[in-house]
Specification:
The protein is mainly α. It is built from 8 helices and 2 strands; from the N terminus they run H-H-E-H-H-H-E-H-H-H. It starts with a helix and ends with a helix.
Amino acid sequence: MSEVAPRQELLAQTEAAQARASSPDASAWVSANAGAGKTHVLKLRVLRLMLAGTPPERILCLTYTKAAAAEMAQRVFDELSEWATLGDERLSELIAQLLQRRPEPEDLVAARMLFARAIETPGGLKVQTIPAGRERLLLRFPREAGVPPGFSLLDDDSAFVLRREAIVQVL
């Protein structure tokens, strides 16, 4: 027996799991080893959410590193920009694969408009690191978090200066 059948079965299982994780109808926490396809799944989820009508400003993606956040945002925008210029047949194939059903004509129209919609949205699509997301929440709900309204976080340079001043005062 060839290895092709087991590989195809594993690929089908992986694609089914990715489809479940990227479904806009379910909550999901994606955790896997590096190179396992987390960014791909999250990209699919964002695209499916947007195709389902979720406004880009209502989508927040959190990841661990700035590099991962930049990569995620770039992949989403690359896909959306491609959709805006593809022919009907190829776009229909991609949307069918994403939605796991034959797309309606309005699905194609919506897909073509998503790039402009994402670019023009005030605040845009938010793909951030977990610390940036936490900071955003603190700034938005300071009283609930027990911090003074209008607080600001120290940047690395300011923290270095304050640390140096504290060391000098102690010595």
